[in-house]
Specification:
By secondary structure, the protein is α+β, with helices and mostly antiparallel strands. The chain contains seven helices and 18 strands. It has helices at 63-67, 90-103, 111-124, 197-212, 259-270, 282-290, 328-340; strands spanning 8-9, 34-41, 44-52, 70-72, 75-79, 85-88, 136-145, 158-167, 175-179, 217-221, 229-232, 235-241, 244-247, 274-277, 294-301, 305-314, 317-320, 351-353. It binds pyridoxal-5'-phosphate. The site of pyridoxal-5'-phosphate (PLP) has 14 residues, from strand 12, helix 5 and strand 15.
Length: 354
């Protein structure tokens, strides 16, 4: 446990919670009473404070709006049946946040500000954690460059904030996926492994085009040959082929190392499957489909946990899946949710008590 930090807390006079119920909330639209804000100036983090959720006052010249030094994280907090609050694997998000920061030439955020700030904020707003099944409190830490200067250079000043948003249930119907061959998400040497805002901005056109063609998301392929499979939209992807679960490996730096991806790998092994992190091509996938070995395809991420894929289209080749009869992805989702909601024993130490 990190030493209690000097965080100045200003509480709201009246909670907004009295005016709303935490049921069936759309993702990311409502925010709790408080937020955390800190400033990086003269080489150090200062003014760490928790205060009422409020607008930021920014100069139009704010560097992040022009040059995109901006990163974020997505984490969830849950309440168990006794009303105890816990956050799922936040330390992994903390580490990834600073990996993103380094790649984007931004200062790292010290552990005591990220972890203890997060804990104090969630503790203060813990009445906002919905207790209904499939509901949670989504936590959004983020950092952006804040110099009011439009010269192209790394900023001297940055802002770090944490917002909390009650959400759920996050239901996603089985998805139809279009294998993307024109646009790319990430290439070796690029920023694909970092959770930076630009990755999302750059993905929207391909996704919109896929939607117009009747698909929900794209499956990204590598930038050189459009052959190696990367991720599905903003989620990691898993393929169950025979008795083996495969997810694309991380070594090229083109894939975001999802915390859910890592958790799913652990749970799959516990279920007795062979797992592999390896390169996999669309040709190998089609061959596995043609031979009847390709059993399940699903995406993983904090927002939806597991999203089943019922159709995959590559050029004129369409793969259909009978998701109603799947065994593995629904079981992984059930096991993970049971751990997160405190209904199954947390044997991996994944829950961070608030
Ligand atoms: C955030 C993200 C994921 C999922 O990561 P989790 O830690 O599981 O939420 C996967 N791919 C991309 C591109 C992402 O930004």
């Amino acid at each position: 446990m990190v030493a209690a930090l000097d965080i100045n807390i200003t509480k709201v006079e009246t909670s907004k919670l009295t005016e709303m119920t935490l049921e069936n909330l759309p993702f990311g639209r409502y925010f709790t009473d408080h937020m955390l804000e800190a400033d990086f100036e003269n080489g150090e983090w200062k003014n760490v404070e928790i205060k009422p959720y409020q607008p930021l006052l920014l100069e139009p010249s704010t560097a992040a709006l022009h040059y995109g030094q901006a990163i974020f994280e997505g984490i969830k907090a849950y309440k168990d049946a006794e009303g105890n609050a816990a956050i799922f694997r936040p330390y992994d998000n903390f580490k990834r946040f600073n990996i993103s920061a380094e790649r984007m030439n931004m200062p790292v955020v010290p552990e005591e500000i990220f972890m203890e700030g997060l804990r104090m904020l969630v503790e203060l707003d813990k009445n906002w954690i919905p207790s209904m099944p499939d509901h949670s409190l989504y936590i959004r830490p983020f950092m952006f460059s804040s110099d009011p200067v439009i010269g192209v250079k790394p900023s001297d000043t940055y802002k770090f904030l944490i917002l909390l948003s009650p959400t759920g249930p996050y239901y996603t119907a089985p998805m139809k996926i279009y294998v993307e061959e024109k646009y790319t998400r990430a290439s070796p040497g690029g920023v694909g492994f970092s959770k930076n805002a630009g990755n999302y901005g750059a993905s929207m056109l391909a996704t919109s085009n896929a939607k117009k063609a009747g698909y929900d998301q794209v499956l990204w392929t590598d930038a050189f040959e459009h052959k190696y499979l990367q991720e599905v939209g903003t989620m990691n992807v898993f393929f169950v082929i025979g008795n083996k679960a495969i997810t694309p490996s991380l070594e090229d730096g083109t894939i975001l190392a999802g915390v859910t991806r890592d958790s799913v790998l652990v749970v799959l092994k516990e279920m007795g499957l062979e797992v592999a992190e390896t390169k996999i091509t669309i040709d190998e996938l089609m061959a596995a489909h043609a031979s009847g070995e390709l059993k399940e395809v699903f995406g993983t991420g904090t927002a939806a946990t597991i999203s089943l894929i019922k159709e995959l289209r590559y050029k004129e080749y369409v793969m259909h899946f009978d998701t109603d009869n799947w065994k593995i992805a629904p079981e992984v989702k059930k096991r993970l949710n049971a751990i997160r909601e405190g209904k199954a024993e947390d044997t991996h130490g994944w829950l961070y008590k608030v």
